[in-house]
Amino acid sequence: MNLTAKQSKALRYLQDGVTTDLLYGGAAGGGKSIMGSYWLLKMALKYPDTRWLMGRAELKTLKETTLVSFFKVCEIQQLKADVHYKFNQQSNSVHFPNKSIILLKDLFAYPSDPNFDSLGSLEITGAFIDECNQITEKAKNIVRSRIRHGLDENGLIPKMLMTCNPAKNWVYHEFYRPDKEGKLPVYKKFIKALVTDNDKVSATYYDNLLKLDKNSKERLLYGNFEYDDDPSTLIDYDKILDCFTNSFVPGGEKYITADIARFGKDKTVIGVWNDLRVKIYTYSKLSVVESADKIEQHRQENNVPLSHVIADEDGVGGGVVDITGCVGFVNNSSPLGNPVTQEKENYNHVKSQCYFYLADDINKSLVYIDCDDPEVKAMIIEELEQVKQWRMDTDGKRQIIPKDKVKEMIGRSPDYSDVLMMRQWFKLAPQLTWVAF
Q1: Which of 314, 342, 339 is nearest to 425 (CA)?
Q2: Do 267 and 405 reside in the same domain of the chain?
Q3: Whole-structure pTM over 0.70, yes or no?
Q4: Which of 7, 117, 347, 414 could form a disulfide with 383 if both were Cys (CB 3.0 to 4.6 A apart)?
């Protein structure tokens, strides 16, 4: 097999005694499917009576793409169908004379099977997940938990090969970012393979990538994980970055927004606003009383009227609202009227409405975020990138992606973006007068 330098490097990791999780790819044309197919074929032939998984988000797409690459690899290796291997259409599996099997699996997160019970008592020796950026982290973890068949007998360790194009989801947080920061655990590896690493790709294919739009070209040609081509994304990535340099944004009325955490869990985040200029403060392990005291401290130091203070009232935040007497933000309450016409707008609830308005302000370069902490800045960027329209292909009310879905994508609650979002409440409800006692 005439492998590229990057493919050969990947194969070495897949045959060592340390690496258990390998992410390979990062752009179109890097030879991802060929690499994965070759590895599965080699392992199935070398180790008798072993079981290997070839997975993708949808079985139909897997059979139309990845499986085609597998058959191509078999042809290159001069292996003939029904002689050296047999593909069973009914069971979606490839069988070899040495009793090894490659199982084709659908790994989409269907609402009817949230825990992937369809995988049942599956036992495999290793797994190749193509375009893993299209499946959930939970699906990946379930597959990993099934790797145990024939390992000791063959002196193997669990191995999972995943290929992908750039995406701002668990792939980014688990592999790309830690690798970039030099924090990737030794048992995990990331190989960035681009179209320019593959000398078998035609010049025409490269030219087509050059003609893509900016976001798609950054992702599919240059392998830039910082760009997202999801059409449901509400805030432009470059505009998110601009928030941290928009020092020209003027000041004005003072406000405070706060997202309150349960004691000992998550973070309490407070935003102190000078019109649409905000400084973010993060606190951990605060009780309800301590959170209320911090808000009062910021209020006095910055001369913020109590009627200009709002806190998330859901959960323990309600206690802070009771103690301080500030405005309580109820996420699923009815949307407010348009600030100009006062007419009711077509959102599912006020939280979605505020996020849409926040997105508009950021895209217009109206927001300045004062943040010197690189870790906090990175988290704010990640959270704002997840501000997306939910079910945009339906004719129902406009809504953002649910919080539990965001947690699934970034592995935590979007506390910082919620603090930014709540500032919009005062823009939408200026006609309301709140009396402080």
Answers
A1: 339
A2: yes
A3: no
A4: 414
